[in-house]
C-alpha cells in the first residue's frame, strides 16, 4: 500500500497520501515491535500473579511475518492468474486490493471470509464486469478452499482408517494368542478340577 496507494483508495475512499502514511505507520510499528523484542529479553514475559505469557522472540516473529507475506503473495498471484485479461491490472495493485480484502474478511470473523472478501473485491475492482469477477472468485475459492479441504479430509480419513485397522488387527492377534495359550496351558482352576479326588482315610 505504501508503493501503490491508489489501489487502496478504490476500497477505503481515502486520498493516496493518507493510505501511504497508514502503510508507513504500520511498517514503522512492526519495526518498533521487533526492536523492542531484540533490546530486552525479559520484556517478552507478560502477566502477573502466576499468570504469564511469553511472547515469541524477534527471530521467530520475523519468521512468522515472512511466512505470512509469502502465503499472501502466492494467494495474490493465484488471484492475478485467474483475473480476466481485459481490462489489464498490474500484480502489485491487485495484491494490495487482495490483502486489504483479506484483512477485512479476518476482521469480520465470517467463516472463510465468505461474503466480505468477495464484496470487497467487487467494490475495489469496478473496471471488471461483475460476471467475470464472480467467476474468478468462485474458481479461486475452489482452488484455495475446497480442493485443500478435500485433500486434507482424505488424508485424515485414510490415516484414521489405517489406525483403526491396525488396532483391530492388534486386538485380534492378542485374542488369538490368549486363546492358543489357554488351550495349551489350562488355567489352574480347570487343572484342579480335572485331578481325581483323594479318598479320605478312615
Q: What attributes does this structure have?
A:
single chain, 72% helix, mainly alpha
Q: Explain this structure to me?
A:
With 202 residues, this protein is mainly alpha-helical. Among the domains are: 54 residues, no CATH class; 86 residues. It contains seven helices and two strands, in the order H-H-E-E-H-H-H-H-H. The protein has a two-stranded antiparallel sheet with strand order 1-2. A hairpin with a 2-residue loop joins strand 1 and strand 2. Helix 1 packs across helix 2 and helix 1 crosses helix 5. It is flat, with a radius of gyration of 32 Å. The protein starts with a helix and ends in an 8-residue tail after the last helix. About 3% of the residues have low confidence.
Brief sketch in words of this structure:
The chain has seven helices and two strands; from the N terminus they run ααββααααα. It is mainly α and 202 residues long.
Please, what is the oligomeric state? single chain
**What structural category arises from helix and sheet content?**
mainly alpha
Query: Can you count the beta strands?
Result: 2
Strand order of the largest sheet: 1-2
Specify the number of helices. Answer: 7
Q: Name the beta content range.
A: under 5%
Q: In terms of topology, how is this protein built?
A:
Elements (H helix, E strand, L loop, with lengths): L4 H8 L3 H24 L5 E4 L2 E4 L3 H25 L8 H18 L7 H9 L5 H55 L3 H7 L8
Antiparallel strand pairs: 1-2
Helix pairs in contact: 1-2, 1-4, 1-5, 3-4, 3-6, 4-5
Amino acid at each position: 500500500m505504501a508503493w501503490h496507494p491508489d489501489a487502496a483508495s478504490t476500497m477505503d475512499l481515502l486520498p493516496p497520501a493518507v493510505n501511504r502514511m497508514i502503510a508507513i505507520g504500520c511498517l514503522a510499528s512492526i519495526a518498533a515491535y521487533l526492536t523492542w523484542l531484540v533490546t530486552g529479553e525479559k520484556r517478552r514475559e507478560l502477566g502477573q500473579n502466576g499468570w504469564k505469557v511469553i511472547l515469541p522472540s524477534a527471530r521467530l516473529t520475523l519468521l512468522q511475518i515472512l511466512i505470512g507475506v509469502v502465503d499472501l503473495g502466492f494467494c495474490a498471484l493465484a488471484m492475478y492468474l485467474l483475473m480476466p485479461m481485459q481490462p489489464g491490472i498490474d500484480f502489485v495493485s491487485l495484491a494490495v486490493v487482495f490483502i486489504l480484502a483479506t484483512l477485512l474478511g479476518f476482521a469480520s470473523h465470517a467463516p472463510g471470509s465468505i461474503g466480505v472478501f468477495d464484496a470487497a473485491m467487487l467494490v475495489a475492482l469496478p473496471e471488471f464486469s461483475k460476471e467475470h469477477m464472480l467467476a474468478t472468485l468462485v474458481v479461486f475459492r475452489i482452488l484455495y478452499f475446497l480442493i485443500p479441504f478435500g485433500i486434507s479430509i482424505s488424508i485424515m480419513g485414510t490415516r484414521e482408517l489405517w489406525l483403526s485397522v491396525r488396532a483391530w488387527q492388534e486386538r485380534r492377534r492378542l485374542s488369538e494368542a490368549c486363546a492358543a495359550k489357554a488351550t495349551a496351558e489350562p488355567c489352574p482352576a480347570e487343572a484342579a478340577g480335572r485331578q481325581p479326588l483323594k479318598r479320605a482315610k478312615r
